[in-house]
Design goal:
Helix 8 packs parallel to helix 9 (about 160-170), helix 10 runs parallel beside helix 12 (about 225-235) and helix 13 crosses helix 14. The chain has 23 helices and 16 strands. It has helices at about 1-10, 15-40, 40-45, 55-70, 75-85, 90-95, 110-115, 135-145, 160-170, 190-195, 215-220, 225-235, 245-255, 275-285, 300-305, 325-335, 350-360, 405-415, 435-445, 460-470, 490-500, 525-530, 535-545; strands at about 100-105, 125, 150-155, 175-180, 205, 240, 270, 290-295, 315, 340, 365-370, 395-400, 420-425, 450-455, 475-480, 505-510.
Length: about 550
């Protein structure tokens, strides 16, 4: 049955009538706005006697806006399409029907001018540096304060106590506050205290990209007590992201005063250098933790993981693994849906370790293995009971200095692999062997159910890539085609092959971005702008390869 569905989805379907209509409307509106913008003010005098060309231009824009608003049932979708296509169309989408808006430095003044028409906004993205917009901070605060229906706010770098105070007094419906991109927040404990008035808050996301030594420079006005205040006063809060040091101080502050054994609703925790006792405290106070991110944990944390009965996603970086703790790891791993293991502090990953983890993770759907040092697997192993080895796994990611034998063992042993990402530099693999491994995996049918493929520095031949594409009927997304160790002509041949055969495959350059903890980006443009200043994943991988003298 699945093969039939894959065959149906293999080729792109023609657009639906609704989608075709939307595309045509977007085209007409965009052409109208572009025409008005390019002609300037001189065109008015040629056809009209009026000496107020700007008024005529505004009237023309208003006519286009009315045309757009006549399709009120899909106004929001049309507005987002126009915004993604060209930000110059912002003038015609600033309408009372608009519910979601992204504001950049180019559109800020116009948005503030039309703020009286936007009281119905429920989702707002602010992507600009308020420090460079001198003299209008008051106008911005007034605008945000007018959004009584606002439920989600994502900001880039304008997080201040004043903004939080406005949200507390004017946005009672706020459910998500996302300042993940603001690495230089000027907020204090007083500002965080204002947020406690937003009783509907479910997510508060602050920047947590620093390290143990720079938190005072980035959070000079925030303390663990301020974070603890949010945990206590926001009954619906399930996601609270902040500097791990601050979270640790908040938990330490709350634990001795929690005389009534109150439990909190947090589902996520990021901890750096956590001890077993700290994690046991967390499990007692926050019994519903479902996602845990640990950096440099102590050797005995496995005993605490066993107590977290709701844990479904675990990320461990620079961790120690002691065989005596297997009895604690096993029940914890059996409950997991996602497991990320980065840089184990052991002599090396061997086949016994892989078998052990594979048998424990009965419900695991996503597995990421990052190695800073070469594993100890010297030959490809055929797992005898494939149905018991990662039986539910759908997504596999391998990074760093992994051997071909490890890759082949994992890929050939997973029965229903749907997403494969390999970030291994070609210098760490003998020439030609990676290509042979991928070709053999395709021929053996191990990649036949693949839907998503992520390439990075793969040394593969054009024939192998074309064969892989043709033999994976469900393949829908390819990332990193431009990162293949292949000539531009070869990459273009692959793109042409997909286009000429009308294959339903989306091709993207670069590395697929990790989903943010808070809101997803509204447009690719904003995503690329933020990513351009922080290519974390690629930089981390390249630093590993430099350390290993591979590049």
């Amino acid at each position: 049955m699945q093969n039939i569905m894959d065959a149906i989805d293999r080729h792109r379907s023609p657009q639906t009538l609704l989608r075709s209509a939307q595309t045509q409307v977007v085209k007409i509106v965009h052409e109208g706005v572009t025409s008005l913008r390019e002609k300037g003010s001189g065109w008015c005098l040629k056809y009209f006697s009026s000496r107020e060309p700007l008024a005529l231009r505004r009237h023309a824009m208003k006519t286009i806006q009315d045309y757009l608003a006549s399709a009120s049932h899909m106004f929001q979708d049309l507005a987002m399409e126009l915004h993604r296509k060209d930000t110059a169309c912002i003038e015609v989408i600033l309408h009372p029907l608009l519910r979601t808006l992204e504001v950049t430095s180019q559109t800020l003044l116009l948005t503030l001018d039309q703020g009286h028409n936007l009281a119905g906004l429920t989702v707002l993205y602010l992507f600009f540096d308020i420090k460079r917009q001198s003299g209008i901070e008051g106008q911005l605060l007034n605008f945000v304060g007018s959004l009584r229906q606002l439920t989600k706010l994502k900001i880039s770098n304008c997080c201040t106590d004043q903004l939080l105070a406005v949200l507390a007094t004017s946005c009672p419906q706020l459910r998500v506050f996302d300042a993940e991109e603001d690495s230089e927040m000027s907020i204090t404990d007083h500002g965080l205290a204002f947020l406690s008035n937003c009783r509907q808050l479910v997510s508060v996301v602050l920047n947590d990209d620093g390290d143990e030594y720079d938190y005072e420079d980035r959070y000079f006005g925030v303390s663990g007590k301020g974070i603890a205040h949010l945990i206590i006063t926001l009954p619906k809060l399930t996601l609270l992201v902040c500097e791990p040091y601050l979270m640790r101080e908040a938990i330490k502050f709350l634990y001795p005063i929690n005389v009534n054994s109150v439990s909190y609703s947090l589902l996520y925790l990021h901890a750096r250098f956590p001890s077993r006792d700290f994690l046991l405290t967390v499990s007692a106070m926050c019994p519903h933790i479902a996602e845990l991110r640990l950096e440099d944990p102590s050797k005995d944390v496995a005993q605490a993981l066993d107590k977290m009965s709701s844990l479904q996603k675990l990320v461990m970086t620079n961790y120690s693994w002691v065989s005596q703790d297997d009895l604690f790891y096993q029940p914890a791993f059996e409950r997991l849906k996602t497991l990320v293991l980065k840089n184990p502090k052991m002599s090396g990953i061997n086949i016994d370790f892989l078998k052990k983890v594979g048998l424990w993770c009965k419900n695991l759907t996503n597995f990421t293995l990052t190695l800073y040092y070469r594993d100890l697997i010297t030959s490809s192993i055929k797992i005898k009971n494939r149905s018991e080895f990662f039986p539910s796994l759908r997504s596999l990611t391998i990074e760093g200095d992994a051997s071909l034998c490890l890759m082949e063992t994992l890929i050939s042993s997973i029965t229903d692999l749907q997403s494969l990402s390999i970030f291994v530099h070609s210098f760490s693999v003998p020439s030609g062997q990676f290509d042979a491994m991928i070709l053999n995996m395709v021929k053996a049918g191990n990649l036949s159910r693949l839907r998503t493929l992520q390439c990075f520095q793969w040394e593969v031949s054009l024939d192998t890539m074309l064969y892989l594409i043709d033999q994976t009927p469900g393949l829908a997304t390819i990332w990193g085609l431009d990162l293949l160790m292949m000539s531009p002509a070869g990459v273009k041949t692959i793109q042409d092959h997909i286009r000429k055969n009308n294959l339903n495959i989306d091709v993207h350059d670069g590395i697929s971005p990790d989903p943010p903890k808070g809101l997803n980006f509204l447009s690719e443009r904003s995503q690329h702008r933020v990513e351009s200043s922080d290519h974390t994943a690629q930089a981390d991988l390249e630093s590993i390869l430099v350390e290993l003298n591979l590049i």
